[in-house]
Amino acid sequence: MALKILSVDDSRTIRLIVGKAFKPYECEMVEATNGEEGLAAAAREKPDLIILDVTMPVMDGVTMLTMLKADDALKGIPVIMLTAESGRENVLHIAKLGVRDYLVKPFKDDQLIEKASRVIPLQKKPVPA
Amino acid sequence: MTRHLVDVFETMLSMPVTLRPGAPQPNFDSRVTGSVGFAGEKVNGAIYLHMSAPFACTVAAAMLGLKPEEISDDNEVNDVVGEATNMITGGLKSWLCDSGAECAMSTPAIIRGQSFSIQPMPDVARESLVFAYEENFVVVEIHIKLN
């Protein structure tokens, strides 16, 4: 069964770039545009990995992460934060909340795939004969 | 700021931009401007990223892996310019926070138009940096107030 990856970002651009990065791999992408939608999608879809932005309207990524980790049914889902903010205190604060990894924008596709590969067993799609 | 802008353009767009110290402010016939604010107890301000509308379309296409003619509406361009502004401001915010000036960032906003300027509020310092990629110009404008 294909892995399911939830991309939570208010920027359609970033969701497209994340989706494109995972396109060569056996996985299904699910999207949400803020933390509130992200929590609902996490509960509904039970993704294998969440790629989570920090600064978003409605509910930011830190609040979503805090609520996710407080939910027994969802706290086991690994999260990689994808954010423009790399300040030391910010990184430490988020690390304490239980993220698996942290990727700072701007980023290359292969950096995201490398970090995701450390968390979930990504498999390349077979090349059509 | 120079490093942050260069990083965004090189990493996300494969467009090596160069700083043009002392270059005059470019006159954009039609302009797309991204803006992201930041605010904290010790510092507040905003970053504005200006470019011409045609170049903004080229930038959007590069970030989305498309050809410029495949960009179908302004919303795609706005989102890319907003996200690029967000990344540049995130770099500044990280530096400010590491220097003891904690602050939070706003979500991006876009201004489109011709012949407009952004005026700083009283006591707000303004700095403008002009960058070039081939025959195109990008301007980063920083408005900052230390409290």
Describe the structure in brief:
The complex is a heterodimer of chains A (129) and B (147). By secondary structure, chain A is of the alpha/beta class.
Q: How are helices and strands ordered from N to C of chain A?
A: EHEHEHEHEH
Kindly give the count of domains of chain A: 1
CATH superfamily of chain A: Response regulator
User: CATH superfamily of chain B, please?
Assistant: CheC-like
The overall number of domains of chain B is 1
| CATH fold label of chain A | Rossmann fold
What's the layout of helices and strands?
The complex is a heterodimer of chains A (129) and B (147).
Chain A: E1 3-8, H1 12-22, E2 27-32, H2 35-45, E3 49-52, H3 61-69, E4 79-83, H4 88-96, E5 101-104, H5 109-117
Parallel strand pairs in A: 1-2, 1-3, 3-4, 4-5
Chain B: H1 2-13, E1 18-19, E2 31-39, E3 43-52, H2 53-64, H3 74-98, E4 104-105, E5 109-113, E6 125-133, E7 136-146
Antiparallel strand pairs in B: 1-6, 2-3, 2-4, 2-5, 3-7, 6-7
Helix pairs in contact in B: 1-3, 2-3
Protein architecture, described:
The complex is a heterodimer of chains A (129) and B (147). Chain A is α/β, with parallel strands linked by helices. Chain A has one domain: Rossmann fold (3-Layer(aba) Sandwich), CATH 3.40.50.2300. Helix content of chain A is 38%, strand content 19%. Chain A has five helices and five strands, in the order βαβαβαβαβα. Chain A has helices at residues 12-22, 35-45, 61-69, 88-96, 109-117; strands at 3-8, 27-32, 49-52, 79-83, 101-104. Chain A has a five-stranded parallel β-sheet with strand order 2-1-3-4-5, with helices on both faces. In chain A, helix 1 (12-22) links the parallel strand 1 (3-8) and strand 2 (27-32). In chain A, helix 1 (12-22) crosses helix 5 (109-117) and helix 2 runs parallel beside helix 3. The longest helix of chain A has 11 residues, at 12-22. Chain A is globular, with a radius of gyration of 14 Å. By secondary structure, chain B is of the alpha+beta class. The model of chain B has no long low-confidence stretch (mean pLDDT 92). In chain B, strands 1, 2, 3, 4, 5, 6 and 7 form a seven-stranded antiparallel β-sheet that branches. Chain B has helices at residues 2-13, 53-64, 74-98, and strands at residues 18-19, 31-39, 43-52, 104-105, 109-113, 125-133, 136-146. Chain B is 33% helix and 33% strand. Chain B has a single domain (2-146), classed as Chemotaxis protein chec. Chain B has three helices and seven strands; from the N terminus they run αβββααββββ. Chain A binds chain B through residues 10-14, 16-17, 20, 55-57, 83-90, 104-108, and chain B through 7-8, 11-12, 60, 63-65, 76, 79-80, 82-83, 86-87, 89-91, 93-98, 102, 105-107.
